[in-house]
């Protein structure tokens, strides 16, 4: 069974981000390379860890009073936080596949507007903890 994009959700602080049009989650392995004389010129590589980032894009919106999601004002405010206040809990929910949770910080927030289209935002996040399997409610 294929998982359609609309079944994938990113929750920040327990809330789904509203008006999202695209998510991208990326895992990059940290590799340590070494070479000794005994290796006879062959470099050895060992995975020593990983780093994760995710990007989200969406339409600028304002809550209508009935939603419990995270709106554009809350994302904007999150981008201005510092220190421990900048760290958020997240859950990356992948439809019927396993979900993962951890902590992340927003590394950038951008709003893009033009005269004839929808105003949009984009946010980049860096995961600052290990991830663990999560139960999604």
User: How many DSSP E strands?
Assistant: 8
Order of helices and strands: EEEEHEEEE
Radius of gyration: 19 Å
Oligomer type:
single chain
Query: How far do the termini sit from each other?
Result: 21 Å
Low-confidence stretches: none
Strand content: over 45%
Mean pLDDT equals 86
Q: Structural class, from secondary structure content?
A: mainly beta
Largest beta sheet, briefly? 8 strands, antiparallel
**H/I helix tally:** 1
Shape verdict: elongated
Percentage of residues in helical conformation: under 10%
What this model shows, in words?
- Strands 1, 2, 3, 4, 5, 6, 7 and 8 form an eight-stranded antiparallel beta sheet that branches.
- The protein starts with 7 loop residues before the first strand and ends with a strand.
- The chain is elongated and about 65 Å long.
- The chain has one helix and eight strands; from the N terminus they run E-E-E-E-H-E-E-E-E.
- The model has no long low-confidence stretch (mean pLDDT 86).
- A hairpin with a 7-residue loop joins strand 6 and strand 7 (120-127).
- The chain has one helix at 72-79, and strands at residues 8-12, 15-16, 20-34, 44-59, 87-94, 99-112, 120-127, 132-134.
- By secondary structure, the protein is mainly β.
Give a quick summary of the entry.
With 137 residues, the chain is mainly β. Helices cover 6% and strands 52% of the residues.
């Amino acid at each position: 069974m294929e998982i359609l994009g609309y079944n994938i959700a990113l929750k920040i602080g327990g809330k789904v981000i509203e008006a999202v049009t695209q998510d991208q989650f990326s895992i990059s392995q940290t590799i340590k390379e070494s070479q000794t004389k005994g290796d006879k010129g062959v470099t050895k590589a060992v995975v020593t860890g990983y780093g994760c980032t995710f990007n989200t894009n969406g339409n600028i919106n304002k809550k209508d009073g009935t939603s419990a999601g995270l709106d554009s004002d809350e994302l904007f405010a999150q981008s201005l936080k510092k220190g421990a206040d900048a760290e958020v809990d997240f859950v990356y929910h992948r439809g019927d596949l396993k979900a993962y949770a951890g902590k992340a910080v927003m590394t950038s927030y951008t709003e893009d507007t033009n005269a004839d289209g929808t105003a949009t935002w984009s946010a980049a996040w860096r995961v600052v903890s290990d991830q663990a399997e999560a139960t999604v409610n």
